[in-house]
Write a structure and sequence with these properties.
single chain, alpha+beta, four-stranded antiparallel sheet, 9% strand
């Protein structure tokens, strides 16, 4: 048998070694006999081979002839059959375990398989185990983890087939298990053109996570002793950038189905990333659905949902969602932001996308988010336009008008983004909350711990936000024009909405008295009414065209000459104490309801700046101005039957009230146009502390 070995390597010296160095090395090799369990016979043969080599290299004439052979290309030694195993041992000891394992594996295969129970079989089996282990170690040192695993796997198979060395086989199996994360990293980090290796790595990663019991590691598995939760998280963060965004979506959705909440959150981030980077707004809807269904302890999802709503051009709802956040630091930042609310939300969203969403993917490389290009993209515009057309029976007109109004208010009040803080303002690096760094187990990391991430926004011009605002306004205005030309701004829009509420609120059947209903539509073709739509209703609108429902026409003729009932406006009393009682909160809301009712009926002016924020007052005034132009007024009767305090901090209060609500719309002549009754109607009221008193900031109806 020829082995890839020369006499110098066999004894362990360099070709320039002197005779004294050769004899010293020979003695050391004799003294360091392998004690792993080889038979006496093979150890004796090993010693004899070492002695022959030492004799050859210390004899000047023999050495000279051998060196000439090497110079002429000789690179192997020929061993007689009775000394093959000893020669393989010396090849292994010379630092060539991979070559030794391959030859041993071949020697153990038929037809060369040694006699069962012979010393040759025992020595070759032991040598196979030892060379497989050392070959794996050698490959690990070269970071060829997949090759290392292959050596271990083949060694284990050999020992299983031979039925020997159970303890050593167990050690090899444990080595193989502990090597798994490195194998996955090796396979996934290869070039994407190596599809076979990449798919194998993905499959191994998924199996590893499933055996651990999800990303949380809820199951006790064979990997527990080698990869604790902290080590796994570090490993996963290293693995993640080698996966494409679609691979991560597929992986996380599968893990979420198996009960991993952490995977659900990462699926939400991945869907948001592909939606924004690839201009696929439908993925943002998928992301929002997943996030709303998650129940992660300590996660405040409101600002994240608000960012998605901003990207979908639903500015009013984005603002309301941000106000619903329970994060005190975020609320303080929003309240103290030196610009308008829309500007603050844009800054937050941009920072979130850059630092938490668009990072850690093999095929996404976005260093800076450009919201202008997002809203300018034709595909985005077409998608939102289709969404608006699909949901035109509920809230489209009002949503468009409210968004245009919000942007207009911002421009008129602040003079545009460039007028803030003396022209081209800069974001204070300490003013921006939650700048990034959502980790696998630390999605609720406090704002104070992440200040370093905020520096990415420092010294950057905010001029693009002005451009963004203008583009949103132009886009929404163009959609509004289109809808108006198609006749969607008429009374049928509102009638459908009322019918929808009636169907779910009081159970009145649909389809009755179609003829009389259509006549009423023809008689009043310009009536509009802003509607506040709660988030769950909005999702229904986004996915399904609302069924058309008709109200019993007998209700139309009832009380057509009725006059609005008298409403007594409550005295406006500011709440200045730090922690108001539920009774004081109820009085503030009652004051708002009664004064708004009288104002919408045209009885009084609205003067609630002491208890209501300017934005809400302005919306109410604009609603009344529209009614005046159409020649109508509203009689609103609302009574709080129950109110519950949901959350309360030093700067924000959230209360949910159950109302007995009725709204009737009259022409100025006294003719009843429409009537809506809801009992109960649940409304979430949000109060903020501003200018040393509590003020109503916003409300969300239809909970």
């Amino acid at each position: 048998m020829e082995l890839p070995l020369d006499h110098f390597r066999l004894i362990g010296v360099s070709p320039s070694a002197t005779s004294e160095e050769i004899l010293r090395a020979f003695q050391l090799r004799l003294d360091k006999t392998p004690d792993e369990g080889f038979t006496y016979e093979v150890l004796t043969q090993r010693s004899e081979l070492l002695r022959l080599t030492a004799d050859l290299l210390t004899d000047p004439e023999s050495r000279r002839k051998y060196e000439n052979l090497i110079l002429n290309g000789a690179s192997a030694l020929d061993f007689p059959s009775n000394r093959e195993v000893a020669g393989l041992m010396l090849l292994w000891e010379s630092g060539s375990p991979k070559e030794a394992f391959k030859i041993v594996r071949k020697a153990l295969q038929p037809p060369q398989t040694p006699a069962l129970g012979s010393s040759r079989e025992a020595d070759l089996t032991l040598l196979a185990a030892l060379t497989a282990r050392d070959a794996a170690i050698q490959e690990q040192q070269l970071r060829s983890y997949s090759n290392a695993a292959d050596f271990l796997h083949e060694g284990i198979q050999l020992l299983q087939r031979m039925g020997k060395l159970g303890e050593i086989r167990k050690d090899l199996e444990e080595d193989l298990v502990s090597l798994l994360p490195y194998r996955i990293l090796d396979l996934l980090s290869r070039d994407l053109n190596d599809q076979e290796s990449h798919k194998k790595g993905l499959s191994m990663l998924e199996n590893l996570i499933i055996k651990r019991g999800g990303l949380e590691g809820n199951n006790k598995s064979e990997y527990g002793d080698y990869l604790n939760q902290q080590e796994f998280e570090a490993f996963f963060q290293q693995i993640k950038p080698y996966l494409t965004v679609q691979e991560q979506i597929d992986l996380f959705l599968e893990l979420q189905k198996r009960g991993s909440f952490e995977a659900g959150f990462l699926a939400f981030l991945s869907l948001t990333a592909i939606g924004f980077s690839r201009r696929k707004p439908e993925k943002l809807f998928e992301a929002r659905k997943i996030l709303k269904k998650l129940n992660l302890s300590g996660l405040d999802s409101m600002p994240l949902i608000g960012c998605l709503e901003l990207l979908l051009a639903d500015i009013d709802q984005a603002s309301s969602t941000f106000l619903s956040s329970s994060d005190e630091n975020l609320q303080d930042w929003l309240n103290n932001y030196p610009g308008d609310k829309l500007e603050a939300i844009c800054v937050f969203c941009k920072n979130w996308l850059e630092n938490d969403v668009l990072v850690g993917y093999r095929d996404i490389d976005v260093k800076e988010v450009n919201l202008d290009s997002w809203f300018e993209d034709r595909e985005i515009q077409e998608f939102i336009e289709k969404l608006e057309k699909k949901s035109n029976k509920i809230g489209v007109n009002t949503r468009l008008q409210n968004q245009n109004k919000f942007i207009k208010d911002f421009s008129q009040k602040s003079g545009g983004i460039n007028s803030l803080r003396g022209g081209y303002g800069y974001v204070d690096e300490n003013s921006l909350p939650w700048p990034g760094g959502i980790k696998l187990q630390d999605k609720t990391q406090s704002i104070e711990e992440n200040n370093s991430e905020e520096e990415v926004l420092k010294n950057k011009s905010l001029d693009f936000y002005k451009y963004l605002i203008e583009k949103i306004a132009e886009f929404k205005f163009s959609i509004g024009e289109l809808l108006e030309k198609k006749g969607l701004f008429n009374s049928s829009f509102y009638t459908y909405f009322y019918a929808f509420l009636i169907l779910f609120g009081v159970g009145i059947g649909f389809g009755l008295f179609r003829d009389s209903f259509n006549k009423r539509i023809q008689n009043d073709s310009t009536m509009e009414k802003p509607i506040e739509i709660e988030d769950k209703n909005k999702e229904l609108v986004e996915e399904n065209i609302i069924q058309e429902n008709k109200k019993n026409s007998s209700n139309q003729t009832q009380s057509t000459s009725s006059e609005p009932t008298e409403n007594i406006s409550l005295e406006v009393k500011e709440i200045t104490i730090a922690s108001p009682s539920i009774k004081e909160i109820k009085y503030l809301i009652d004051t708002w309801l009664s004064n708004k009712s009288n104002y919408m009926a045209g009885k009084t002016e609205i003067n609630l700046s002491g208890i209501v924020k300017d934005g809400l007052i302005k919306r109410t005034i604009e609603e009344r101005q529209k009614d005046i132009k159409k020649g109508v007024y509203k009689e609103i009767s609302s009574e709080i039957e129950e109110i519950v305090l949901k959350s309360q901090t030093s700067s924000r209060i959230v209360a949910v009230a159950q109302l007995k609500y009725r709204e009737r719309i009259f022409k100025n002549s006294g003719e009843l146009v429409n009537e809506t009754s809801l009992n109960p109607l649940k409304v979430k009221y949000i109060l903020g502390f501003s200018n040393k008193s509590w003020k109503l900031a916003d409300f969300v109806s239809g909970l």
